[in-house]
Structures are given as structure tokens and as C-alpha cells.
Amino acid sequence: MIPNGVPTAVFHPPEGPCGADGAATRLLFVGNWRDDRKGLPLLLEAHRRLRRDGVPVTLDVVGAGPPGAAAAVDGVTFHGPVTAEEDLAQRYRACDVFVSPATGRESFGIVVLEAMAAGRPVVCSDIAGYREVVAREGARLVPPASVEALTEAIRALAATRPEERRRMGAINRRRAEEFDWDVLTRRVRQEYEAAIAARRRSSGRGDPTRDRPGASA
Length: 217
Known about the structure:
Elements: E1 25-30, H1 40-52, E2 57-62, E3 76-80, H2 85-94, E4 97-100, H3 110-117, E5 122-125, H4 128-131, E6 139-142, H5 147-158, H6 162-176, H7 181-202
Parallel strand pairs: 1-2, 1-4, 2-3, 4-5, 5-6
């Protein structure tokens, strides 16, 4: 299995330290939030509970949604779709914690991988598509569709010192580098070379004439 990849030269950590003690923890959600399985309503409820309890958090939502559905919510900013990769990468770099509360049916965690490449700690659902990507020491996995677990995972990271979040982000960055497109391209090439070599062995020990149309059996 060769997975999807991420351009780590585009999605990279910020140049300087991000976040400071006492500042509001900046959460980020990226996805088509008109799709219920992306879990944005769960995150909005977790965000509401945290602010009700006095936890200083803000939430940026990037992605398309139903027209007129981005109602004013205290501490939440809806940015709409971001199509340019560099602009999206900047959104990742500007957050303190990336959150993806998908409820299931995610074949691969592209947004999680992008956040990891940007050196961000992650809170995400404990589902198959995400488990294949995350570095356990850089993420907090929560049961899907559990607002309570999601709230507590974010609460814990909001209370964590910025140095610890940066440590988690560094772990995630190292993991994301395994999915860089240059690395995966070499793996694809190796698979093709192995397949060509196997075909040649099975069709006559590498004799190129045996693969030509009309060659004798």
C-alpha cells in the first residue's frame, strides 16, 4: 500500500514560536462542513462548552458550507473555502491545535497530515483513516461522535504549555515527512521497476523480443 502524500515544502512549521502562555488557544477545522461526517457540529458544541467553562479558546473554520449557515458564534470565525495551497498552509501554521472530529468513513486523513506537516498538535477521532496517519505522541485520539471526549481532549491541550505543544508538533512533522511526495514517488517507481522485472522473468528471462506483438511463443 502506497498512501497519499503531502508537499512538506509547502506545509511546513512556522519560522518562529507560535502561541504563548495566557493567550487564547487557537483551534482550526478544515473541511467541507456541510458534510455531517466531518463532525463540525461536535466541535462547535465542544467549543461552546469550553468557553462556558472559562477556557480561552477560539475556532477558525475553513471550508465550504451551506449558504447562510455561518451564523455569528462567539469566538468562531468562518473563513470559507481556501483553494491556494500556500494560503491553506498558512492557516495551519497560525493555529495552536488542529481538530478533526470526523465521525467515520474517512479513507485517509489528508487534513490531519497537512496539519502534522505544519508542526501542529492534533485532536482527531479514533477512526481507521486517521490511525494510519497520526503519530500517537503528537495527537489525542477520541471516540468518534463523543462531544465529552472531544471537549476534554481540547481542554487538556489548551492547558498544556506551548513548549509541550511544540514538542508534539515536532513529532508530527517528523512523521509527516514519511509521506512527502518525493518519498512516495520513489516508492511508486520501485513498484513499477519490480513489476517490470517480474514480467520479464516470467516471459523469458528478460528477452525483450518476447514482449513484442507477433513474437513467437
